[in-house]
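Below is a filled-in request sheet from our internal design queue. Each sheet records the structural input a requester submitted and the sequence that came back. We keep these sheets so that new team members can see what a complete request looks like end to end.

REQUESTER: design group, bay 2
PRIORITY: normal
MODE: inverse folding
CHAIN LENGTH: 268
BACKBONE (tokenized):
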């Protein structure tokens, strides 16, 4: 496939996990051989098409701010491939627990598939829970599909709620619809809430603000398929270095600020 067509394919695509999206985007950018201006335009198109993907913001920021952009793209892919978040989650999950999740969480889902001793309450979010349930059933994992109207009672019943972030800022995370309600119920019911935040999702403040600005332009918050969840509702974070008990201290952003990705009014 020609690099231009590959980039268009990536921009239009949806439903792929973060690792695949980063690898495809990096490969397309490397194949284009663009000058600096062309690289900025290509990265902006990717972000405009996938405004809720923290790893794509992360990749594009690293590419645009690096003296060797193609080497930076390769390094980003290598770091995604080496992400140990799922491995840490496998080791940290309590034995024989009943775990509630929403939709089809990529990193957490991998850990649940490989543990095998857990009971999973798969709550509908974004039309993805049915596929996730079938995947767990094929792996002989005990799982029950839960409708969105049963979210509150399912979360309150669980021993642990796992939420997976698309991106994280200093005091909140971006997650698929339903996560704000689930985390709020868990917080009130004193059910631990573990946020899974893999490589490439911790953004610097200006880029986090720009991401939220793009979402605000897309419609009212209740009309979108992602929502902002305050970290005050989260008891623990699980990331590339393991378990963090103080979400506000999760760590520094994983990429520099690329002002080229933000609206002109954000860079003044």
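RETURNED SEQUENCE:
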């Amino acid at each position: 496939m020609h690099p231009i067509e590959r980039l268009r394919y990536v921009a239009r695509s949806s439903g792929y996990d973060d690792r695949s999206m980063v690898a495809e985007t990096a490969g397309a950018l490397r194949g284009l051989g663009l000058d600096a201006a062309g690289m900025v335009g290509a990265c902006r198109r990717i972000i405009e098409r996938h405004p809720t993907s923290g790893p794509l913001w992360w990749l594009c920021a690293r590419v645009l701010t690096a003296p060797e952009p193609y080497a930076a793209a390769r390094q980003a892919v290598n770091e995604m491939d080496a992400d140990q978040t799922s491995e840490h989650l496998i080791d940290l999950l309590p034995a024989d627990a009943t775990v509630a999740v929403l939709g089809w969480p990529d990193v957490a889902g991998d850990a649940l598939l490989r543990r095998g001793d857990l009971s999973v309450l798969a709550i509908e979010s974004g039309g993805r829970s049915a596929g996730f349930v079938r995947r767990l059933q094929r792996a002989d994992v005990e799982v029950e599909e839960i409708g969105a109207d049963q979210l509150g009672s399912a979360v309150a019943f669980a021993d642990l709620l796992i939420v997976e972030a698309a991106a994280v800022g200093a005091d909140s995370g971006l997650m698929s619809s339903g996560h704000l309600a689930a985390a709020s119920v868990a917080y009130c019911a004193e059910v631990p809430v573990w946020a899974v935040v893999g490589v490439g999702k911790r953004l610097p403040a200006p880029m986090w603000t720009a991401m939220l600005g793009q979402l605000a332009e897309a419609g009212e918050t209740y009309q979108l398929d992602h929502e902002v969840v305050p970290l005050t509702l989260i008891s623990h974070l699980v990331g590339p270095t393991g378990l963090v008990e103080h979400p506000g201290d999760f760590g520094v952003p994983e990429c520099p600020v690329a002002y080229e990705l933000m609206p002109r009014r954000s860079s003044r």
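SHEET NOTES:
- The chain has a mean pLDDT of 88.
- Residues 18-32 form the longest helix (15 residues).
FILED BY: M.R.
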